[in-house]
Amino acid sequence: MKLVLRIGAVFCVCLLLGAAQLSRMRTTLVETNQSSSRDLPTANENAGSSEAAELASGKSAPAPIRATDAQLAAAGVNEAGDIPILEYHEISDGKSRMCRTANAFRHDLARLYAENYRPVLISNYIDNRIDIPLGASPVVLTFDDARASQFHYLKDGTIDPECAVGILQEFAKLHPDFPVKATFFVLPENAFGSKPDIAARKINALLAMGCEVQNHTVTHRYFNRLSDEEVRKEIAMGAAMIERMAPEAKVDILALPGGIMPANRSLLPSGDYHGVRYSNRGVILAAGNPSRSPAVRKFNPYFVPRIEAIEDKDGIVRWLDWLKANPKRRYISDGDPRTMTVPKASAALVDANKLHDAALRTY
């Protein structure tokens, strides 16, 4: 009996010592986290991308189920159709034609979701790697200039719910099948109205969410006013500055300032400025119309139009209305990124060299 009591007493002492040690460890961790909280992303910086969370956990997405011809026909699948690439600038109540209010942006997202659009990155589009459900249509959300209204921190370090990123996160929480997935064409100097360290933090936070950052040059000067040397400088240094802030970023798609081409278009795919090389696999324009499917013969990755997200006769409402009224012109997915599916009557539109390892399927 004495032996049992002695063992029990020792066990209790061990528990007490362990609890005290655990308490000290927790205190240390809290102090460490508090002292470094400015350098770490806040909880809502990492929110928004269920795909990113799956990758981080080591889980792989299940293989897509191959739809039957009857299912394809019922969904109206046509992966040779047109795709809206939306171009946003300012998310605010400003008077400029480039301004889109926060409520108007929320309305855009709600309409896109209701009409069965799902977001993809500009790189997914260029590479013909569009992975969305059967019957859904891709939409590319792009933001130019890295303005403060696109990504803003509140004083407590959280993301402003009225900025573009905050609105995207809010919408993704309500609709997990519409993740935070957007492309930001960044002007790297004072990006998002921030000092260099905060700008770098924001860019890396976007990557962690599942977004991408791409090149919009350094100073936003129109290329038709620049020499060849100046064009090369703007492209090369724009990409280099972004990659310096975010080494994991793959910066190889360029949005032209004002959508204006240089006199010498051969400068766009690749070049060199004083030893700083650049290579672009896509060049994006400004105002325009829906873009062609990336696998059709007429698709040109170095001449990709966008739709301005503005209240204008040629803005977002006009073109979404047009796509709704012309469903046979709209890209509708087969739900399988391994295949490129079109009606038999549209097979001649497809360029086999642009399939990027996807198999052509007709029905």
Question: Any overview of this molecule?
Answer:
The chain is of the alpha/beta class and 363 residues long. The protein has nine helices and 14 strands. Helix 4 runs parallel beside helix 6.
Please specify the SSE layout and strand pairing.
Layout: H1 2-36, H2 50-57, H3 69-75, E1 85-88, E2 90-91, E3 99-100, H4 102-114, E4 117-119, H5 122-126, E5 137-144, H6 164-174, E6 183-186, H7 196-209, E7 212-215, H8 228-245, E8 253-255, E9 270-273, E10 276-279, E11 282-284, E12 307-308, H9 316-325, E13 339-342, E14 359-362
Parallel strand pairs: 1-5, 1-12, 2-3, 4-5, 5-6, 6-7, 8-11, 13-14
Antiparallel strand pairs: 9-10
Can you summarize this structure?
With 363 residues, the chain is α/β, with parallel strands linked by helices.
